[in-house]
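Support reply, case 0932

Customer input (verbatim):
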Amino acid sequence: MHMDSTTEIIAHFIGVFSQTVEDVRLRLDYAEFTAQQEASPENPELLNVKINISSPYTLGQFAPKVSYSPPPFDMVATSVGTSVPYQPIPVQIPRGDMTKVFGSTRHHDAPGMSERVIPEYVPIGSLALYLRQEAQLVDNDVLTIGNHGLGMHMVGDPVAALARLMDASSQLQPLADLDGLHSPGDASDFLLHAADAVDMLPDAAPAGGSLFVAQGEASAGIHVNGESAEEAPVLDAYLPAKFLPPPEDTDDEAPAPNGIDYSLTSKIDMEAGGNFLLNEAVLINNWYGAPVVAAVGDYAHVNAISQTNVWSDCDAVSSALGGWQTLTNTPTQAFNVATIETIANPAYGGQTADGSGFPSYWQVARIDGDLILANWIKQISFVQDNDVTVMSACGGGTTITLGDNTTLNITSLAELGIYYDLIIVGGSIYHGNIISQTNILLDDDLVGTLGDFQTSGQASLSTGGNLLWNQASITQYGTMSFEQLPSSFQEAADKLAAGPTDAPAGLLNHQAFSGLAGLKVLYISGDVIDLHYISQTNILGDADQVALAMDKAGAYADADWTISTGTNALVNYAHIVDGGVDSTVYAGGNVYSDELLIQAELISNDTGLYTQDANALVNEAVVFLSDDMLAPDADDGPPIHDGAAHGIGSADVMQTMLS
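Our regenerated output:
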């Protein structure tokens, strides 16, 4: 149908309006349909199935142990009888004094014999020990930490400074480098050298040192740093706390946290010292002994202890750190502790005679040649721990350990042999116990600041607190008295030199043998060399050099600092126990018996390591590192501050711990 333009416009408007109304209606229906799709599905009821289970077995309580009772068994009492046919073998008993022996505890009855038979025994042999224990460690660390862009090289020559201390020590220690016994003939020269050690000492102690010498009875007893003492000091009372074992904690609960978050707290805790060097030797010599000793030749006996402590602890500390030194109230301490004692030990349980009469025979064990009993022990610990560090604070807690090294040399010997009633020596007797102990410490530290370094946090600095400890003891069981060789003993030695023989009547009737049924005799045709030597040396170079700098951005000015460059311990401990009984020594030649004690100490103040103040030395030693210098080389080689660089020292860069 044809409509005019007006009608057509009106119809078009009505159609559009109808379509719009229909669209709105459909949208309402769609929204309702969509909501129904998003609704949670309805859960149907679960199927309920009832199951009844029955079991004839019942579980008992948990039993971690299994009990087992073995089945019983019957014991039947019975006895076994045996018979061994025995026909005694005839033994020819030589005529003489041996047939008159009665009641000796050293005899035993042979079945079918009417006389007592004397058993044979094997004499002791020679014993020689040459032992050298040596511990060497080089732990020269180089460390830069923090955002400061600086490096540092070693100031001075710590090795040369340590060598000067070693040279000074050699002047006060005459027994440290004695040569070993290359032949039995060297025994006399060795003892004479030890006895003449006093002549090798200087007339007076050098500047900064002390020297104490005692001989004979004056050396007996306990001496501490040249002074007589009633009791010896205890090492644990002076050892730095870090080296002591932790106290026994009866409470198993963990310690309560201190509330500090070290991941967010700026704190540096550095230990560049804390080294522990220990030499320990214990020697027990109970190889032979007799209440009567007869030597056709000479008799020489020497007990000697020589102890020396030498150290230098001249620190160069920046004036800006003067208030930090709160831990240095304990200075370096040195002790020389020596004990020489003789303890009476009577033979035969304290009774030399249990009745009347004298022995009727002797039983001789024979050694043709020399009897050698020698112990040569040398212990050396040599440590270099010269650390170089440049540090600035970081955003968290940092623990740096550049030292904390430990070296140990430990020896323990016990030599047990046989005792006799009489020892006859065709030659001479050389008997000596000698101990030499030396501690040498270089702890000249350099701690300085750079530029405007400062901190408002808690700070402490320790550069001392070292301990040098020498402790030696010689304990001799059995006193000695010396007399001229009687003719009967000389006669016995001459007869034994020609071969087996009967005992001279004059010897058997000697008053020292009253109450004995028979004599147990050791005959040595040559010399007796009974020498024991212990030499202990600790050498530590711990010249640490520390520079403190600020962060480039000036951050962490409130950091906490704890720096320790000392707290080292050098310990020597030696003890010789010389077993024996109270004896009378008869010598046909010369008699020399002496005791010697040397205690020396030297505090050096002129090693020449630091000749300027700390600030000047640090400023000269520190270098500014560019980014190119800090970056690794193209061939992935070490950075410029590596420990292998010239003038730095060891290539051991942080051998220990950095956390």
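We compared this against your earlier run and they match. Two observations from our side: DSSP finds seven helices and 32 strands in the chain. Helices lie at 5-38, 158-170, 186-195, 487-498, 505-508, 614-621, 627-630. Please reopen the case if you see a mismatch on your end.
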